[in-house]
Amino acid sequence: QLQASGGGLVQAGGSLRLSCVSSGRTFSSYAMGWFRQPPGKERDVVATIRAVGTTYYADSVKGRFTISRDNAKNTVYLQMNSLKPEDTAVYYCATGRTWSGGPYDYWGQGTQVTVSS
């Protein structure tokens, strides 16, 4: 089970930190990812982190978002800075099927992020 939290309403330029707690799997052995689905659009990848810590970011968030993981707490984080209205979306965390990545087939319930202009 994946439990995401930390979403909310923030003004443009502000920051939020999302958290996702995992249970039921050996967290440290799997890649983790954050995805988002804006209103009326498809879900897309935001950032991923491999079991060994290697990270990937979508171009739209590079330099603004940071993904990290704490294996002792079974938690993956997404620090979001310099938020823009176009970052408004439901954000989901997911577990990859392998240590290096996807397919991402185990999903949390999502947390809403709304950025006002």
Protein described:
This protein starts with a strand and ends with a strand. The model has no long low-confidence stretch (mean pLDDT 95). β7 and β8 form a beta hairpin. The chain is 0% helix and 51% strand. The chain has strands at residues 2-5, 8-11, 16-22, 32-37, 44-49, 55-57, 65-70, 75-80, 89-96, 104-107, 111-116. By secondary structure, the protein is an all-beta fold. It is built from no helices and 11 strands. Strands 2, 4, 5, 6, 9, 10 and 11 form a 7-stranded mixed beta sheet that branches. A 4-stranded antiparallel beta sheet has the order 1-3-8-7, with no helix packed on it.
Topology:
Blueprint: E1 2-5, E2 8-11, E3 16-22, E4 32-37, E5 44-49, E6 55-57, E7 65-70, E8 75-80, E9 89-96, E10 104-107, E11 111-116
Parallel strand pairs: 2-11
Antiparallel strand pairs: 1-3, 3-8, 4-5, 4-9, 5-6, 7-8, 9-10, 9-11
β-strand number:
11
Query: Structural class of the secondary elements?
Result: mainly beta
Query: Which shape, going by the Cα principal axes?
Result: globular
Number of helices: 0
Report the oligomer: single chain
Order of helices and strands: EEEEEEEEEEE
Rounded radius of gyration (Å): 13 Å
Strand content: over 45%
Mean pLDDT: 95
Stretches where pLDDT is under 50 for at least 5 consecutive residues are: none
Largest sheet: 7 strands, mixed
Overall helicity: under 10%
Distance between the termini: 34 Å
Outline of the structure:
This protein is an all-beta fold and 117 residues long.
